[in-house]
Amino acid sequence: MENWRRFLNEKADPNKISSKDFPMKLSNVGDLYSPEQAKHIAQGGLKDGNPEDDKIPAQAGGAQVTDLKPSQSSMNIKKAVAFAIAAILKKEPFANGPGGDLGAIITNDSHIMDGHHRWIASGMVDPTSSVKGYIVEFPAKELIAVLNILTLHFTKSDKGKPGGGSFKDFNERGINAVLQQYAKEGVWSAGDDPAMVIKACEVFTGQQGKHAVATAAKKMAQNVSQLTLSVPSGFPQREDMPIISAKKGHLKLAIKLLNSGAIDVNPKYAGDSGEPGGVHPSGGIYRKGSKSDVGFDSDEAETHRKMRNLEESKKYRKRRKK
Hints:
The chain is mainly alpha-helical. The chain has a domain at 58-136 and 171-228. The protein is built from eleven helices and five strands, in the order H-H-H-E-H-E-H-E-H-H-H-H-H-E-E-H. It has helices spanning 2-9, 26-32, 35-44, 77-89, 116-125, 140-155, 172-185, 194-205, 211-224, 250-260, 298-321; strands spanning 58-64, 100-107, 130-136, 279-280, 285-286. Helix 5 (116-125) links the parallel strand 2 and strand 3. Helix 7 (172-185) crosses helix 8 (194-205) and helix 7 packs across helix 9.
């Protein structure tokens, strides 16, 4: 505990993060930086002479679903209800029932960065259930911006996951409509078997037959009413939120970068450049849009030239084939 307290005292200050250099929207990050430049920012904190000022402490932890808040307003009710059925039937990703490991990041102001559908599905089935992930000692607004830099670095893309749907659908009428559809057509979380959907509703409510479907919808709506569904003004839509994949190993790497102070989030920045990672418009490592290799070391510049030549050769061969 003493080590953890000392660790918390050696950390980045969210109030010193520049919204100009760290936009909240993933698409805006892509407007500013290339994936290579995002990589420089993700590593620049170790090159600014003071790695302590960039540390963002993170450790494994969890919370009850009712204590957590979303960070995006997009929510697909069909996907959420499908997950709720999986939680009732104890099917993946809910082998032990509602709750469990979201493989997601939770901020110190209780916002979840990912796993929204699994979170709300757990709440629909059992609002007393708890979910696990990584607790990061940073507020959501600033952490979204930092994680979007890592998203561009990891995925080489500024395109987020597709959005659609909203929390306003999560009432008895909306949930019942989806459950009735699944009770007729089936859904993946019930083995595409309509009878298993009805069985899940029976298990959930103690009722029998098709009457259990309507009762399940009412109970789910009552449970979800205990969750916080509002999102702070200015938070991005799902399409502009970070993508930090646990399956691809990006989550563990992100936690390592946050804990080590590798991400150049607070001034002074790398190379005394005045810009995170030494990436800036007029000198050093140029921002996106510049054609110059000025500021890169010779080996890195040569790698960039070779990659560009390779891409041009590929395009030329494709044109020749046509």
